[in-house]
Design goal:
homodimer, 332 residues, alpha/beta, Rossmann fold, 4-stranded parallel sheet, elongated, DNA-binding
DNA sequence: CTGAAAGCGCTTACAG
DNA sequence: CTGAAAGCGCTTACAG
């Protein structure tokens, strides 16, 4: 193993002290431009990369953030990409930590993670049993942020809980002639499921339409399927507002098997634009989210909290509706 | 920020030297059981966690592995969970690194990652422009392992390239009466796409059936759709072996639009068991892979290479076929 | 089996 | 604006 270049090597080549090299790399602006240049050139020539472990030991900051994942969390690819990129820009790295087991085990493991001081911040894409990120926590403590969270009053907050597209879709369906609606929820320990349900209920009220039911699901295609199987024969024509595309897909299969025509007997909307949704027969109307930006914003909010800077509000408007064949005027 | 407990604190409480604490935690077996017990108890009482940065600085081992991801890689959730768990058992953490841009930019960024000495090993779930992990590289150098890789002779290798289920599905389809087959490939810079295509071609030969074509795709539903649209009207009855479920879903939509009945005019198989596949109408026959084990094995192979231990062979047999409605006897 | 000591590579007051 | 020096918390020969 060839010896790594250190700041001392760079200092020697540039003809300055080790401290000067350090000042250049930590962005101190007290170094003259010519000196800075010499240092940077020497560093480039030697392919110098500061040893993060040494820096971390000295500053007692790890520069590490954790993303905790459970088996049940949704496809994290774009979220992770966005978060990683934003973290990298701010000088942080993101580690994946798997939280196996049930709620109790996960909570214990998370608490241990927090107390380990290994991470400056911890990000979760799904609900976790902690209070939301607060900048007033003791300085130096690990900050925890969930993208899908309840605040102190059990209101929903976070970038995943902007459910306005639900209302927009229902308005359009009403314009198309729909008067009867059904909602299948996601798992109700998810704030995003709560906010979509609440948005549905508010829209029913506001639009003066009939709700045939709000039925609790768990995000899975299986519940969509079973719930649609159990709807009364008298349900059609109606519009089904499903919590996500999986639920919608399951419900569509059940509807087709019952001989209901989609979209005229049952119009249906999803959420997420799952991979196959555009190619279903009929193709599924859904909500597309910019998940990479969502992930990046979440990382930025976490980092702001870690740095005790003001935490920006969750981004909104990162989602838009894609109208496809599963929604149209009801049969009369 | 309350001061962190150090090995010195533990040593003091346990009435031993700091070195003894270190020996206990690094697994030296030269410490007597009673002493080890005292140390462990003291550590537990103080909630001591070794400072990884300090350890890393001393050992010049970072204990960090990177998983590189590009926008185009598949859903990494289970792979990541498996890899993370296996890494954690071996004392490593896994960081996500985003490789944006085109092939050249990605290659440059990867080279930089390798030369940064920040990671002991780098894992990729998709093809990357490097030679496979080799234990004869210079000691201390960063090891790179791709789950989907070409070996020196451009043969395919790695846990993603076991394509035997293709042959098994085709045998069954032949038993059902099928004599005409079509294959739509994945992106052919993926070894897994190559191996599935080769398995298809070998099975055509061996089973003595007719191949209406091997058509190059790119894993997307869109290519499946367009390619199926372009098949001759005389194609049915036939069986379509699609490179994955997305391709299969796109092809199914095109077939339905052409008035072909699935499965009698066109039987179809996918690969991956995508989220909606079981609820399509008809539901899609596919190959389920144990992706968490796949990810865990990959991490173990990488770690073995990092440690210059013999690298175990890629696991096989982690996949099985799920027969659903999209496959049946052809119309005669 | 244990203790005193050096040193990994950095950052950061401090004195010039 | 720069240099000499201390120290972050560990590990690991080395001497006992």
């Amino acid at each position: 193993m060839q010896k790594r270049t250190t700041s001392r090597d760079v200092a020697r080549l540039a003809g300055v002290s080790q401290a000067t090299v350090s000042y250049v790399f930590t962005g101190k602006d007290t170094i003259s431009a010519p000196t800075r240049d010499r240092v940077l050139r020497a560093a480039a020539e030697l392919n110098y990369q500061p040893n993060l472990a040494a820096r971390s030991m000295r500053t007692s900051r790890t520069g590490r953030l954790a993303v905790v994942m459970t088996v049940s969390s949704l496809n994290p690819r774009e979220l992770l990409l966005g978060a990683t990129e934003a973290a990298s820009e701010a000088g942080y790295v993101i580690e994946v930590v798997y939280l196996p087991g049930g709620p109790d085990e996960r909570a214990a493991r998370l608490a241990q993670l927090v107390s380990s001081s290994q991470y400056e911040g911890i990000l979760s894409f799904s609900p976790i049993p902690v209070s939301p990120a607060s900048a007033d926590a003791e300085p130096g403590a690990t900050v925890v942020l969930s993208l899908s969270e309840f605040d102190d009053d059990m209101h929903v907050t976070g970038e995943f809980t902007d459910a306005r597209p639900i209302a927009e879709m229902m308005e359009r369906l009403v314009q198309l002639g729909h008067r009867r609606f059904v909602h299948i929820t996601g798992a109700l320990d998810f704030p995003s499921a709560i906010s979509r349900r609440d948005e549905y209920l508010a829209a029913v009220e506001r639009l003066g339409v009939e709700s045939l039911g709000v039925i609790e699901g768990d995000w899975s295609a299986e519940t969509g399927y079973r719930i649609a199987q159990a709807l009364p024969d008298t349900a059609p024509p109606f519009a089904l507002i499903a919590a996500n595309d999986l639920v919608a897909t399951g419900a569509m299969r059940a509807a087709i098997q019952r001989g209901w025509h989609i979209p005229s007997d049952m119009s249906v909307t999803g959420w997420d634009d799952a991979g196959q949704s555009a190619y279903l027969v009929p193709s599924l109307t859904t909500v597309v989210q910019d998940r990479q930006t969502l992930g990046a914003n979440a990382a930025r909010r976490l980092i702001a909290a870690v740095r005790r800077e003001p935490v920006p509000a969750p981004a909104t408007g990162l989602q838009h509706i894609v109208w496809r064949e599963s929604t149209a005027a009801p049969s009369s």
